[in-house]
Design a protein that fits this description.
- By secondary structure, this protein is mostly helical.
- Among the domains are: 66-100, no CATH class; 251-478, 2-Layer Sandwich (Nucleotidyltransferase, domain 5), CATH 3.30.420.10; 489-578, DNA polymerase, domain 1.
- 46% of the residues lie in helices and 4% in strands.
- It has 31 helices and six strands.
- A six-stranded mixed β-sheet has the order 1-4-3-2-5-6, sandwiched between helices.
- α19 (504-524) packs antiparallel against α21 and α19 (504-524) runs antiparallel to α24 (566-577).
- GO terms for molecular function: 3'-5'-RNA exonuclease activity; metal ion binding; nucleotide binding; single-stranded RNA binding.
């Protein structure tokens, strides 16, 4: 029993020890490490020791090459390198990365291995970050927790992109129907598209239904083929040059070919009377013909010439063409619908002029403003006797004037606008796009009838309102296509709409980018929006990137042509950054619209309520400033001439006259009343100008200031000579005044001595006596010019010596005797010590010497 008990205790102890060992193993993170901190501490120690060991290796260069020359060192490095690469391959293979580290080309082995290590580090660190997030309780793949019953809203781009307007139907969004890498139809055109920077010349050369014959210029267009010198010149420019050579009239080139017919068009009474609306056929029962050959187009023209009215609409594409392309023309009659592939029949569409210009056939359009221009630009087609349902809708004051509203109002048809912005260059056209294009004209004739009835009913049966719609439609027919022509100031029109405040560098960058965009778009036949959109161009102009990568960063998404021409754009931006930095006034905000809205009669030349700095500032290229300076010089010349002719000159104002004369004041007021009207075109005085720009010969500021200096050089030279002459005269007068002052003082002293001598003799004078003047004191600087006293005209009175101060004649020693002794007068006068510079005596002034005894004087 005791043995069994002992065995049981030993078994329990063994089980307890085994369980404790298992618990310790389970508590350890890795074999030999209890927790993460111990593992990290051990790992940091190994990394530190490896770093120290690597620092002890030979440095790359001569030291490493020296050790490499020993075979033992070379074998050791190769063996250790293979072990390290093998270890790295295992780690990379464990994490699912490329692990072929050893199998590399000898030439590019180092670079390829480095790239593999970098990629593997990124993958490993990303996984470590994900695991750490999960350990913290963050799951990146988990969807956010939303409240019960919450449904995320569907994104709707715009109202046209929504299907179903009833409250019960759910709104549905659609994508634009377009294709990438579509073949450009411009390459198949027989006549090359003219994107040159010249005015548009009509393409018509045959004028059906003409009342006035077509000018000879259009009928003789084939003469161009006989001018080999103009083959390399754009068609419009070559024709203009030919007109100048032959001295023919150029007005015919740009005139409307059917101007005379439309001016003399009269609407018949049948079209001004109340019609009976003819119901349209269901669209499923109406025949549809797709015209893509010349024979079908001729047959269609014959059918249209037999009708009294038909409806027309166009589908246009403008994103991948500079001037735009008319891709489809839809025509609907009362019984049939037609769709013309104008990309295939572009050069033969002129055939339809026979039906389109027939004044007896009504052509019904909706919003024909752009359609008329597109027909002229692409096909040379013109419309006579047009009725625009958009103008009729405006005359009836309907809620909306769009075609979908008219379809809903008159036909109760919901239009499908999914393909309004589709790419109509797609061939073959999908059925959905064909049905959309067909529906635009299928119901238009019925709407035309209904609107004529309502126009007459709203005007109490009078045809006045209906006649006004016909007149407005005729004015639309007279519209002429105007080709966009690039000028130096074209960018200002775009900048006015943006209302941005640019400095000179940003404005120069915008101007250069605008010119580059226009030139490249014409060359590549791409739209300016495809080449470089406006908002991207403004972003580049504001940022002025220093590197090509900065230009790419300003565009999102990057246009293909920008990516191709990024280096050229970078040069343009650098050229703009070299301009002097100035602040440009917003010229697109007129002063009379913003500053003085309450003054109804305020004009741009009214400067009575504005300061000179608030006037408009034109800073295109300096020509306006030079012109303004010339006008200012002319104005000042006129004022000088007025001064010379009508104002008499007064003598020059001397120093002793403090105020000008009455005549001079009057002349000054008259001259000041002239306000110069041309100073408003000069730059503002409060504009900050860089000091370096004023002295930089390459800057525009230096050039303008140099022009101004050259123009006013003579005037400045005259003013300088006048100033120098005035200074010299002032110096001479000052010297003369000083000399006169000194001479006058000596003469006065001599006169005093003579008078005293006369008093000594005491001989009565027979003439009028003069009062003995006192010794004159030194005059002040402001009273240099003395006035001589005129002799008094009063009766003679003897001088009373009892009232005189006899100490003046006593010298330095004062005498008690107050009686006058004539024998001592001269001696006392000689002994006078303190005499001023102005009263210096002519006689010797006796005084006591301070040099001591004679034997102490220095020898010579």
């Amino acid at each position: 029993m005791s043995l069994s008990k002992g065995n049981g205790k030993s078994k329990r102890e063994v089980l307890d020890s085994n369980s404790e060992a298992n618990e310790e193993e389970k508590s350890e993170l890795c074999p030999g490490f209890k927790d993460v901190d111990a593992f990290v501490k051990h790992g940091f120690g190994l990394v530190l020791s490896a770093t120290k060991a690597s620092a002890g290796l030979p440095q790359p260069g001569d030291e490493y090459d020296f050790y490499r020359s020993f075979p033992g060192f070379q074998e050791f490095c190769e063996s250790q390198g293979d072990k390290i690469l093998h270890c790295m391959s295992q780690i990379m293979h464990h994490h699912g990365c490329r692990s072929h580290v050893k199998d590399q080309n000898k030439l590019t082995a180092v670079e390829e291995r480095f790239d593999l290590v970098v990629d593997s580090n990124d993958v490993i660190l990303e996984r470590a970050g994900i695991l750490l997030d999960e350990a913290d309780g963050v799951n990146r793949n988990q969807k956010p927790v939303m409240p019960a019953g919450f449904q995320p809203p569907k994104i709707v781009v715009s109202s046209w992109n929504r299907k179903g307007s009833s409250p019960s139907s759910h709104s549905e969004t659609y994508r634009l129907h377009h294709t990438k890498n579509i073949a450009r139809p411009q390459l198949k055109f027989k006549e090359k598209i003219d994107n040159s920077n010249t005015p548009f010349v009509p393409k018509i050369f045959i004028k059906p239904n003409a009342v006035k014959a077509l000018p000879s210029y259009f009928t003789n267009k084939q003469i161009r083929n006989e001018r080999p010198e103009d083959l390399d010149v754009p068609a419009a420019l070559a024709d203009l040059i030919h007109q100048q050579r032959t001295q023919e009239h150029v007005e015919d080139m740009f005139a409307h070919p059917y101007q005379y017919e439309l001016d003399h068009l009269t609407v018949p009474d049948s079209l001004l009377s109340k019609p009976e609306p003819q119901m349209y056929k269901p669209i499923a029962e109406t025949k549809l013909s797709f015209i893509n050959s010349l024979e079908d187009l001729v047959e269609l023209n014959e059918k249209l010439c037999k009708l009294s009215e038909f409806a027309v609409d166009l589908e246009h594409h403008s994103y991948r063409s500079f001037l735009g392309l008319t891709c489809l023309v839809q025509i609907s009659t009362r019984d049939e619908d037609f769709i013309i592939d104008t990309l295939e029949l572009r050069s033969e569409m002129y055939i339809l002029n026979e039906a389109f210009t027939d004044p007896t056939i009504v052509k019904v359009f909706h919003g024909a403003d752009s359609d008329i221009e597109w027909l002229q630009k692409d096909f040379g087609l013109y419309v006579v006797n047009l009725f625009d349902t958009h103008q009729a809708s405006r005359a009836l004051h309907l809620a909306r004037n769009s075609l979908d509203h008219l379809l809903k109002h008159f036909c109760n048809v919901d239009s499908d606008k999914r393909y309004q912005l589709a790419d109509w260059r797609i061939r073959p056209l999908p059925d959905e796009m064909v049905q959309y294009a067909r529906s635009d004209t299928h119901y238009l004739l019925y709407i035309y009838d209904c609107m004529r009835v309502q126009l007459l009913d709203s005007n109490h049966g009078q045809p006045g309102l209906l006649q006004s719609v016909w007149n407005k439609s005729r004015d639309i027919s007279l519209t002429k296509y105007i080709k966009p022509v690039f000028t130096e100031d074209s960018y200002l029109e775009v900048l006015k709409k943006q209302k941005r405040s640019f400095n000179t560098q940003q404005l120069t960058a915008f101007r250069l980018l605008f010119a580059w965009r226009d030139k490249l778009a014409r060359q590549e036949d791409e739209s300016t929006g495809y080449t470089l959109p406006i908002h991207m161009m403004i972003k580049i102009s504001e940022e002025l990137p220093k590197e090509p990568q900065g230009i790419i960063a300003c565009c999102n998404p990057v246009p293909p042509l920008v990516r191709q021409q990024v280096n050229e754009l970078h040069l343009l931006v650098q050229q703009a950054r070299e301009m002097p930095l100035l602040k440009v006034r917003e010229t697109w905000r007129p002063l009379w619209d913003s500053e003085f809205p309450e003054v109804t009669l305020f004009g741009p030349h009214d400067t009575s309520r504005a300061s000179e700095t608030d006037l408009p500032y034109f800073s295109s290229n300096g020509r306006a400033e030079v012109l303004a300076l010339e006008l200012i010089n002319l104005f000042e010349t006129a004022v000088d001439y007025f001064n010379q002719c009508f104002l008499w000159k007064e003598p020059e104002v001397h120093d002793d006259q403090n105020s000008p004369s009455v005549t001079q004041m009057k002349a000054r007021r008259i001259i000041e009343s002239f306000e110069n009207p041309f100073r408003m075109y000069l730059p503002s005085t409060n504009v900050h100008v860089n000091k370096n720009a004023k002295f930089d010969p390459s800057s525009k500021i230096f050039e303008i200031s140099k022009r101004w200096k050259l123009q006013s050089m003579e005037q400045q030279q005259k003013e300088l000579e006048a100033k120098q002459k005035a200074k010299e005269e002032a110096k001479q007068q000052a010297k003369k005044a000083e000399s006169l002052q000194n001479v006058a003082t000596v003469r006065q002293q001599a006169a005093v001595s003579a008078k005293r001598a006369a008093q000594k003799i005491e001989t009565p004078a027979s003439e009028v006596g003069e009062v003995t003047p006192k010794p004159a004191k030194k005059l002040k600087s402001s009273e240099k010019s003395q006035k001589t006293e005129t002799p008094s005209q009063t009766s003679f009175k003897p001088f009373d010596y009892s009232q005189s101060d006899l100490k003046v004649f006593a010298g330095t020693k004062s005498k008690d005797n107050s009686q006058f002794d004539p024998n001592r007068q001269g001696q006392g006068f000689k002994k006078k010590k303190h005499t001023s510079a102005g009263n210096r005596s002519m006689s010797y002034m006796a005084g006591k010497s301070d040099r001591g005894f004679r034997h102490n004087w220095p020898r010579r």
